[in-house]
Structures are given as C-alpha cells and as structure tokens.
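Example record

One chain of 264 residues, shown exactly as stored in the release files.
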Amino acid sequence: MIQTAKKIYTSEDGSIVAEKGFLVVVDPGCEENTAKDFLRLSRRKKIPIKYAFLTHSHWDHVHNIGKLKKAFKDLVVVGHKNNPRAKVLIRRKSYFHFGESSYEVIPTPGHCERKDDLCIYLPDQRILFSGDTVQPQGVSYEQCNFCTPVPYFEYGDEYLSSLRKIARLKIKYVITGHGAVLPKESIDITLRSVKEIAKLSKDVSKTNRSGINQNVKKLAQIVFRIISEKRNFKQVEERLKDPYYNDLDVKGIIYFIKKYRNLG
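Predicted structure tokens for this chain:
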C-alpha cells in the first residue's frame, strides 16, 4: 500500500482515507492483500475502520466487505440504493462530513448492470474516487496500452452523462477501484472513447440497416476494429477470440447499435 495523497492510501484494488480518530474505506476490493493492508493501517494508527463506501456492486469491488465487517462490528457501509451490500442507501447526490473531510457522493450510472455506480469526490483535496467509471484504457486516446481499447459499460447514454458530470469537477487526481492513480485527463480520454463508439455504432447501423451484416455482434466487431485502429490497439484478433471480449468489451457497443437500429 502506498500513500497517494494527504491522508489517502491506495492498495491493490481499494483505497482508505485516514481521518482523525478513524479510517474511511473507498472500494473494499477483493484481493487478500488489500484487506490485509487496511487492517495493518488500522493497527498501525490504532484507529478503527468506521465507514466504507461501495462504488458499485461488482464482486471485485465488494468481496472484502465481509472481512472488514467481521473485524469492525460497527462498520457503516454506504452505497447506492441498488447495491445489496449497502446499509446507508444513496438515491441522489449526497454529502457527508467525516472527520475533517467533506465527501460528495455522486451517482454515476452506466458501467454496472445494477446502475448502482457511485463516484466519491473530496473537494478539499480535489480527488475523485471513480470505481470503474473512469476507464481511459491508455495514456492517451491515440495510445491504448491496455488489453482493450473499449471502456466496459452497459448503458451508453447514462454512461456518457455520468462522464460529462464528473468532467466538470475540479480534480487533481482520479483514483480508480483498481489502484490506479490517474490525471483528470483520464476522464476526457474515457469520454472521447465512448462518444466515438456511439458515433461509429450509429454509422454502421445506418450503413447496414439491410443486408448481410444485420447480426448485431457482427456490427459490434466492425465498430471494435475501427476504434482499435483509431486508438492504435494492435492485438485486435487476439482480443476478439478472448472470452473477456464477449463478457466485457462488446456490451457497450451493442447498446449503441441497438439504439440506432431501433431509431431506424
């Protein structure tokens, strides 16, 4: 675990804020080392973990909550109203004051199928905990150095709206639910990628409204290949054969293709 900012520590797939007298977790994660890091920091500072924010309900972001609740019986778990693990339920933008910090909890649906995504913003430090909302998949739009050029999302229009919302914030660092500490530009890269996917999906849907390419998955492959070229992603065919392509990459593309075909 490393200290990424004043009072903030980041582990493999989760973060923790050291307030005066207690700790606040953002993304409990699933890795065993993350839970150990949190417990170790609690012992070192001799203060309990009092609150935990859940950015969404995917297993890799919530699994460790059971370990934390076992260690801290009075732990308060804050999450979206659609998140079954949460006890304090968020329905709209909400504000908390824990210790000496203000926490703005912002609903940012689009990534998770439950529409329970949240971003946690600390305005005093200009830090955004983004869960899986911010996914630049590379150091720039034109330089994808991830396993895919496509952000993972389920609901394209809501995802675009969420990205536009957090792009307006004054941010110094974005801390994801997978331990990455990114500049604010990572939001812009993600937004640009999704906007381009929407545009390409509209184009291929119009071009192939009738003919041999009516199959939605085939159209999605066309979009994937084009966005890969635009983002200089080289492992196109390998990724198309990867089981994760069908589980993750293609969902957002298909959302837009279905949208524009139905507008037909």
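Notes: The longest strand covers residues 101-107.
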